[in-house]
Structures are given as structure tokens and as C-alpha cells.
């Protein structure tokens, strides 16, 4: 297994993507400071899947499409912060490889875990806190030109829709297939279409 640092990550991206959809758009993979910023966040995502590891290992990333999608979101977001158009390409590549879409302007805290993830969309300007768990076919999106905010330790089960200018507070759960258009208090469960609140 190869331990990953910013230099290894840059070289691996070059090996993976220099002959891919990025060919002709990316001339070099030498943004080592950017990759270091990525890894400083991604290690917390990685440890949600492999809590026993003290470092990030390349082989384990290759074996998990979810981790590939999260890693490419982290790269795309750093390019977005740097006002570099490569954010579009890395975001698109993450969508192709993982089967879910995380828009590069979403703000996502450390320790994101996605189970399966197929069909999940995290839209532009969505805010997600730390240590959140998201399942497949979930949508975080627009209603009246506003996007949701999730705080820390939130779980969103498969098929849920979380839309508009709402806040899902710490330690809360959105049930499967729920359509959530309302704020969710701390330590609560939201279920139903439309969502109603159950206190834990």
C-alpha cells in the first residue's frame, strides 16, 4: 500500500487523468500546496471509512468509489477557492467516477461519509457541517433561489429531498424518502412528505 502525501497525490492524478477527459485542459499537476490543503481535509473523510488507519493509503481510495468522489470534490473546491476553472473539470470527473454529484461551490466540513451515493446530488452553495452521513439518491437543492444548511453529525437516509433556505441542526436525522422543507431542531428526526418533526 502506498501512503499518500501531496506529492504522491499530484503524481497519481497525473497518471490517472493526463489521458482522460482532462487531457488538453491540464498541462501540469504541480499545485502541491493545493493538494496539501485537500489532504488536510480528506484524511477526516477517509477515516470515516477506515478509522484504524493513521494515514491515507492509495490502494484503499482506489477500492472505494465513494472516496474517489469525495476526494475529487475536495480538489474541485480548492480550485474554486483559487478561482481556477479546473473546478468544473474535477467536479465533472468526480461525477463520472462515483455516480454522485457534489457541486464544487458546496461547503462541506471534515468527516463526510457517503454510503453508496448513486444518484445523490449536493447542489451549489449547499452548506454541510462535520461528520455527516449521506445515503444514495439524496438531493440537496434549490427552492426559491436558496439552499439548505446542515450542521454537524447529521444523517440523511436514501431518497430524501432537502430543499430551500432551511437549517438541519446538530445530531438530527432525515428519514428515507422524506421531503424536508422546514428547519429541523437539534437531536430530532424529520420524516414524511412533507416532513414533520419527531423529537428523539
Note the main attributes of this structure.
200 residues; alpha/beta; six-stranded mixed β-sheet; 5 helices
Task: Describe this structure in a few short sentences.
This protein is an alpha/beta fold and 200 residues long.
Task: Please describe what this structure looks like.
A hairpin with a 4-residue loop joins β14 (188-191) and β15. The radius of gyration is 17 Å and the shape is globular. The protein contains five helices and 15 strands. The model has no long low-confidence stretch (mean pLDDT 93). The termini are far apart. With 200 residues, it is of the alpha/beta class. Helices cover 32% and strands 18% of the residues.
Q: What order do the helices and strands come in, and which of them pair?
A:
Blueprint: H1 6-17, H2 32-49, H3 58-62, H4 65-81, H5 86-98, E1 101-102, E2 107-108, E3 113-114, E4 121-122, E5 127-128, E6 133-134, E7 139-141, E8 149-150, E9 155-156, E10 161-163, E11 167-168, E12 173-174, E13 179-180, E14 188-191, E15 196-199
Parallel strand pairs: 1-4, 2-5, 3-6, 4-7, 5-8, 6-9, 7-10, 8-11, 9-12, 10-13, 12-14
Antiparallel strand pairs: 14-15
Amino acid at each position: 500500500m502506498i501512503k499518500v502525501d501531496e506529492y504522491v497525490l499530484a503524481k497519481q492524478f497525473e497518471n490517472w487523468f493526463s489521458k482522460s477527459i482532462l487531457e488538453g485542459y491540464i498541462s501540469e499537476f504541480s499545485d502541491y500546496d493545493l493538494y496539501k490543503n485537500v489532504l488536510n481535509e480528506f484524511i477526516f473523510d477517509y477515516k470515516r471509512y477506515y478509522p484504524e488507519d493513521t494515514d491515507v493509503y492509495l490502494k484503499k481510495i482506489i477500492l472505494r468509489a465513494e472516496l474517489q468522489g469525495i476526494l475529487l470534490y475536495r480538489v474541485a473546491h480548492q480550485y474554486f477557492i483559487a478561482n481556477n476553472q479546473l473546478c468544473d473539470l474535477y467536479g465533472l470527473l468526480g461525477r463520472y467516477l462515483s455516480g454522485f454529484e457534489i457541486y464544487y461551490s458546496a461547503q462541506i466540513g471534515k468527516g463526510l461519509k457517503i454510503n453508496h451515493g448513486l444518484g445523490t446530488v449536493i447542489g451549489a452553495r449547499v452548506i454541510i457541517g462535520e461528520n455527516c452521513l449521506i445515503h444514495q439518491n439524496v438531493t440537496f437543492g434549490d427552492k426559491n433561489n436558496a439552499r439548505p444548511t446542515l450542521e454537524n453529525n447529521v444523517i440523511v437516509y436514501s431518497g430524501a429531498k432537502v430543499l430551500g433556505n432551511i437549517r438541519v441542526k446538530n445530531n438530527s436525522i432525515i428519514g428515507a424518502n422524506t421531503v424536508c422543507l422546514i428547519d429541523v431542531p437539534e437531536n430530532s428526526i424529520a420524516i414524511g412528505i412533507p416532513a414533520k418533526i419527531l423529537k428523539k
